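Here comes my example:
=====
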Amino acid sequence: MSRRRRLRDEEIPCQLVEIPSDPESDVSDGDDDDDAAFLQEEEVAEYESCDENGDADDDEEEEEEEFRNQNSSPDVNCSSSEKIMWRKTYCPAPAGEFTSSTGPSQEIFDLEDPTPHDICSKFITKEVIEDIVFQTNLYALQQGKNYKPTDENEIKTFIGMNLLMGIVKLPSYRDYWSSNPCLHNDFISKLMPVNRFGWLLGNSHLNDNTLMPDRKSPEYDKLYKVRPFLKAMQENFERHFLPSCSVAVDESMIKFKGRSSMKQYQPNKPIKRGYKVWMMADKSGYCLKFDIYTGKVENKVTKDLGAKVVTSLVEDLEGKEHKVYFDNYFTSVDLMKKLKEKGVNACGTVKPSRRNLPTFKSSKNMSRGDSETFTSNTGINATKWRDKKDVFLLTNFHDPKDISEVARREKDGTRKLYPCPISIIEYNKNMNSVDKFDQLLFQWKYEEKNPVINHSEALADGVLSAAQKPKKYALTGSALCAKCLFVLGKCISNRCKHSSGRHVLYIVKTTDTVMATMLQLINNATMYKVLNAALNIAY
């Protein structure tokens, strides 16, 4: 079978001439000129923008006026196939009036003289407690061991103790029952024996393990064991608080350093390793809606993940004239257009590498405070503002002509005012809602710690691994061994069988008082408590 030969350049015109033409397809030279002119006008309308003075011919002005009239209402119905054209003379439709109620729901206001317990019971309801009791007893029964069934009062006490341990923090939960008066907590230790508390920690369950789908099943859920509790919390969060006009969508982190396929690494976050939580928060810091990210599905990268997260979280806000703010991880032109069609006002920073963005002038031609803005025929405004660095922002409801001023500190210490678009000012003002939630959570969260020391990690920021330092550092300071006790170059633990060069050493900046406290605690506490007591006193 002979192979097909490609035509040479000089053979192509001959072959085109030999193709028989359709009589109905004959066009004149004038038609060719008209088509060329039409294509040229189409290209100019799609890729070029008017200059800053708005100079354009009469036809273009009529088209722009018609476009503004069509976008006078907040609902813009744009087909997915519509081409995006950027102009400096376009203007997005303004946000409508926000008239919805905000703050705690009427069910909260109906409470007479509410106590903290009454408010907490609206979230951790009786149904939630009953479910925890049932699943905990079921799990204990499935283990086939003798056990004492738990009840609602004990589970409530257990939850309250964990909340209190988030306020009065100790290295290990067993320290609250410690015989050492420096660690013992009278209030917590009287509520429940330590062994019973430990049993509840190991047996508390929220779902039936025997009904868990197989990993290969399409119904498999990585959060199956906590899904009923998460669903109940989500419903209660939404029921008891009405969002304000401005809300923010961002990611939060739950600290976790163990092994899990859901664990994420965020190097730019205060909590770098843990579970990622997509969250929509009110400007007060209240969590309105959340979704725990479980990772890739079938090891496939999810396309437009940020857009899917935002559309899912703001689903209940459609048509209510809320203003949603999010960062450049989520923002895209397509997402802004979709939210505009659904009646959601959105604003967010955007990566300059995103598709369908207009071409801005070079940063070399811009000084601090300068800005350039374009608006598309779909009602999306794109702004570039020059601060110390370039700031790129998309919005579907701000007027690009609204400019204010912001103060910036100069190198000589003085403060100077620079012009800044209102859209960027409002973004900076309303984007910190999830950060407020993280701040409040950090003050009260409870972290259960393993009483076994991890030899591969430093115990605190002020602890340095002696293995990475010369030996003289291990002998001149107060050196602690993670496995026994190695103080001032001499081991004083009878259980230690290490030679002087075999200790797992950590250098700790301590004082004589700290050393005396450590020696006093050695007979009454484990090594873990000794180390943490020394660090607490030192810092």
Notes: Residues 311 and 339 are 8 Å apart (CA to CA). Residues 243-296+303-441 form one domain.
